[in-house]
Design brief:
Layout lengths: L1 H41 L5 H41 L1 H7 L4 H28 L6 H26 L8 H25 L18 E2 L19 E5 L6 E5 L5 H9 L2 H5 L3 H19 L9 H50 L22 H30 L3 H25 L2 H22 L6
Helix pairs in contact: 1-2, 1-4, 1-5, 1-6, 1-9, 2-4, 2-6, 2-12, 3-4, 3-6, 4-12, 5-10, 5-11, 9-10, 9-12, 9-13, 10-11, 10-13
């Protein structure tokens, strides 16, 4: 009965993590893709403020990475989930009631605090509620839900912007009001349903043989060795009858966990693919949607890129786990990298060099080949499909490396990603879109080598 209740609670938490992440991304993804052009066409604020607000947002993401673990330990998972969602709405309110640039930056800073916590909380919940043998499968299901959110949000956005050639104030207010409402509903669902399996009275399950470690006891009844860095089951002397019995150690403290991780080379290798994510997400979240305005005056093409990449992520999240059974994870990462290389090359061919920094008159800027909306579909589709596979495998590998310190580990992950995402937001002001694409080539190659070579023993 206890095992049944434990499984029920774990399943419920996995569903909650998936639904809430899906709803939050349903709002956040389309809102981010439209922001730059909406600022340029419905206000007197320059579109580069959209990039700068992303920088401020991800400064907030970095800050939350330092405080998430103690905050979560102090208030628990319900309050953490509620706070995360409410902070996330900060970026929506300021796009509904635009006062000035400073007001936008403040709202996006609050949104960054929520977004940072979001990407720590729900992957942590997935790993904490998954058995080792089911971790990658469950992460795949979670990523399917995460991809479903942007797909549905972008579809609604695409239908709304049909026949729109200039984004008006009314368009902007309607879009961000809906985004805010969807996020608040996700907050309500998370607050009343999610539970912390690590603190649950139902968390007990029968022990497996490989989870039991029997340690030798000396003549005084003391253990001869003790590994405090890892949450394992160890043998402990029973002074009454001298029998060695299995008991469970406490979770490691933050200091113990970091001491162990700093001595683990895989911990440092895990940071390298974050460069890839910073540049790839910076591209398809902000630069690709903005660049479309330089090759077409149809504003429904902006959510179309989000729709295609979201749908491709959904297809990828559904299929990569099955593909990995035939090809193995290493082959999947190589295949995903090839897809990214094709998408980046096509981006160089169809976009003007300054397409990410300014909205030029359609046809005024020279490109290598004549732009076409079909190319945009291919680029967005390849990026979404490839990134879903990389994400599922990476998050599963990271969970295995981090062990019992998932909240700490994903906090480090969040901060690393945010640093490189911030760097990518400076790019339109510093150098042209084509040079940015060359940087993405290097980032994809680094990600591929890190996972297939540096982390290969965790790629099973």
């Amino acid at each position: 009965m206890g095992l049944h209740m434990c499984c029920h609670e774990r399943t419920k938490n996995l569903v909650v993590a998936s639904v809430c992440m899906s709803m939050c991304m349903m709002a956040a993804y389309p809102a981010a893709s439209v922001q730059n052009v909406a600022l340029a066409e419905s206000t007197d604020i320059d579109l580069n403020v959209g990039y700068y607000s992303e920088i401020v947002k991800y400064v907030g993401c970095i800050l939350v990475g330092f405080v998430f673990h103690p905050f979560y330990k102090l208030v628990g998972i319900k309050v953490t989930a509620a706070t995360t969602g409410l902070l996330l709405t900060g970026g929506f309110w300021v796009m509904i009631w635009i006062v000035n640039e400073a007001f936008i930056y403040f709202g996006y800073f609050l949104s960054g605090l929520g977004a940072g916590a979001l990407w720590i909380l729900w992957p942590m919940a997935v790993m904490d509620n998954s058995e080792e043998s089911q971790a990658q499968r469950n992460m795949g299901y979670w990523w399917m839900a995460e991809a479903l959110g942007p797909t549905v949000g972008a579809l609604i956005n695409y239908l709304y912007f049909q026949n729109v050639t200039t984004i008006s104030s009314e368009n902007r207010i309607m879009l961000y009001s809906i985004c805010c409402a969807v996020t608040v509903i996700a907050v309500f669902i998370a607050t009343i349903t999610v539970t912390d399996i690590k603190k649950s009275s139902k968390r007990h399950r029968p022990l497996k043989e490989d989870e039991i470690r029997y340690l030798e006891i000396d003549e005084k009844g003391h253990q001869k060795e003790y590994d405090a860095d890892v949450q394992v089951l160890v043998g402990k002397s029973d002074e009454k009858d001298g029998v060695t019995t299995p008991t469970q150690t406490d979770q490691p403290t933050a200091a113990e966990w970091f001491r162990k991780m700093f001595r683990t080379k895989e911990f440092w290798i895990l940071l390298l693919p974050l460069i890839y994510w910073g540049f790839i997400w910076g591209y398809f979240m902000k630069m690709l949607p903005t660049a479309t305005a330089s090759i077409t005056d149809r504003r429904d093409v902006i959510p179309l890129t989000a729709l295609v990449s979201g749908a491709a992520m959904l297809v990828g999240a559904t299929s990569w786990n099955f593909v990995s059974r035939w090809l193995n994870n290493t082959a999947c990462i190589i295949l995903a990298s090839i897809m990214q290389f094709i998408a980046i090359t096509l981006s160089i061919l169809i976009f003007p060099k300054n397409a990410a920094a300014e909205i030029t008159e359609v046809g005024a800027a020279e490109t290598y080949i004549t732009p076409d909306n079909m190319y945009l579909v291919v680029i967005a589709g390849l990026i979404g499909l490839a990134d879903s596979g990389v994400s599922i495998i990476y998050y599963t590998v990271a969970g295995r490396v981090y062990g019992s310190g998932t909240s700490l580990g994903f906090s480090v992950n969040n901060n690393g990603f945010c640093v490189f995402y911030i760097v990518s937001m400076f790019a339109p002001s510093l150098f042209d879109l084509h040079s940015y694409c060359y940087c993405m080539f290097g980032a994809v190659l680094l990600m591929c080598l890190s996972l297939t070579v540096g982390l290969r023993r965790f790629m099973h």
